[in-house]
Design brief:
Layout lengths: L20 H8 L3 E5 L2 E4 L1 H20 L3 E2 L5 E3 H7 L1 H4 L5 E4 L5 E4 L4 H11 L8 E10 L14 E11 L2 H21 L4 E5 L9 E8 L5 E6 L7 E3 L21 E4 L6 H8 L7 E7 L10 E7 L6 H6 L12 H8 L14 E5 L6 E6 L5 E7 L8 E3 L17 E16 L1 H5 L3 E3 L5 E3 L1 E8 H11 L1 E2 L2 E2 L10 E5 L6 H16 L4 E3 L6 H11 L3 E5 L1 H5 L2 E6 L6 E4 L3 H8 L4
Parallel strand pairs: 3-7, 15-16, 16-19, 26-27, 26-28
Antiparallel strand pairs: 1-2, 4-6, 5-6, 7-8, 8-23, 9-10, 10-20, 11-12, 11-20, 13-18, 14-15, 17-18, 20-23, 21-22, 24-25, 28-29, 29-30
This protein binds adenosine-5'-triphosphate (ATP) and magnesium ion.
Adenosine-5'-triphosphate binds next to strand 8, strand 20, strand 23 and helix 11.
Amino acid sequence: MRASQFLIATQKETPADAEVISHQLMLRAGLIRRLASGLYTWLPMGLRSIRKVETIVRKELEAAGAQELLMPAVQPGELWQESGRWHQYGPELLRLKDRHQRDFCIGPTHEEVITDMMRKEVRSYKSLPMNFYQIQTKFRDEVRPRFGVMRSREFIMKDAYSFHLDQESLQHTYNKMHQAYTNIFTRLGLNFRAVRADSGSIGGDASQEFHVLAQSGEDDIAFSNSGQSSFAANLETAEAVLLPNVLRAAPGKSLEKVHTPDQKTIDSVCEFLGQASSQSLKTLVVLGATDDAEHQPLVALVLRGDHSMNEIKAEKHALISTPLTMAPEQRIIDELGTTSGSIGPVGLTISIIADRAASLMSDFTAGANQTGYHHTNLNWQRDCNYTQVADLRDVVEGDPSPCGMGEIEIKRGIEVGHVFQLGDKYSRAMNATVLNENGKPSFMQMGCYGIGITRVVAACIEQNFDDKGIMWPLALAPFEVALIPLNYEKSEAVREATDKLYGALKATGIDVIMDDRPMRAGVKFADAELIGLPHRVVIGDRGLESGTLEYRDRRAAANEDIPLEGALDFIKLKLGRF
Ligand code: ATP
Ligand code: MG
């Protein structure tokens, strides 16, 4: 590619609205442009990286036995009614009507469409297993689109769906896809981890996420710090465990009721009383699970003041309603005779579920169910009781790892991929069956597997940059080599040597951009560094006189002179192509 015929849309200024480094650099390097909130144009330079991700993804998925298809972006509402997600999905689903007033949506994911396809195409278990994938544009009307293409509204996803007669076959394909994902993210040169995850609104039994580790990540990943353990889980699901043999200390002091005027938060009460928040108990009142929608009971959840409630764990509890809903203030006033700010466990007549750590506290502080008062030196059994103990909180650093080895360490991650076992969630709702060995209809077992193609590009930049710009891993670079002639227009020797090497590189299949723009060398160097091209070769009159070119690895500290004659072989060697 000649730079003079290619849109190089670099910018000097750091865009004010771009919070994270990848977003800033993608705008500055001219990879993307914003059209509207969460909507981006991929400029030619950026699209080249997308295509490289797609190529690697296609190769690994084909090797894992998946076949490519392409489904429509616009999907009939009826299918979503059938699966039940038309009502469940909420405002992330962009709904629209056609000219006949029929409901449609722009697909945020494609379980319904593929299940509909399979129930029509496949009759017998003998056709299974089958695994399909597509690389296609999704739309999710995200509450807070941000970080550029990292959390956009329109984005490119690779989604795959596998169909099986039984769980064993599903597990087999799931494992193959897990391996394919590991191969893909390794080939892309990313520092990533596979972590245990929650299956969220898609449902199902087993689920793992692939995270690129980066400070700007929106997810917290809990790891074991033990060298012997590979435990890693999304904070949403990491279990908070107690060390074995740790018992609750016996009560040490007698119960007191203290006046705490105008202290509304846990922190302010603790400061007022001169204690650590880990010595206080917080009580949250939520709606309980019931079949009687008219009257949902109130349930109290108690946690240590310094711990945060984990909503996913809480709503999975049998006594708690899904989705997790805080009790309306008026019900707390009417039924418990106090306000949410003053509530505590003494004398509460509703079910009290204590977090594991909270159940071990003694001589603790809590609201006294009376405005402006707290109890101090409270003790379970002596002064109050809980109904049950459960894991209700987020793990924190230093907690024992649930694998039994080491302690929890927390790092930020960007979710780039997700593998799920869906079981028969969709096939049952949409009556997608095959005839089994006995000629009986059996719901197909399903797996689904996603990769955020556009997010991968941004996540890669989060891990690969310096103060001059992007530093692409070779696999994702828009161009592998920047060939920069000095004085290309005027010097015949430079033009001749450049054109020859350019032709030879192209003939070898190397992705090269030759910067023939009539610009100062400094501008060209700065552009190549900002865009992050891994290898740079400079051809100038002075070097040519002694038969040399100047080579620089984007990650190296200095230039190297290389002989003009051996330049092609030298570059091939650098790119690992010989
Ligand atoms: P997140 O928790 O980040 O919203 P998700 O769990 O909703 O992700 P999936 O439904 O598993 O995502 O979608 C598969 C992949 O699509 C994700 O792993 C992610 O890489 C990508 N993805 C999801 N939402 C977006 C988005 N708004 N912008 C860009 N990529 C996205
Ligand atoms: Mg999401």
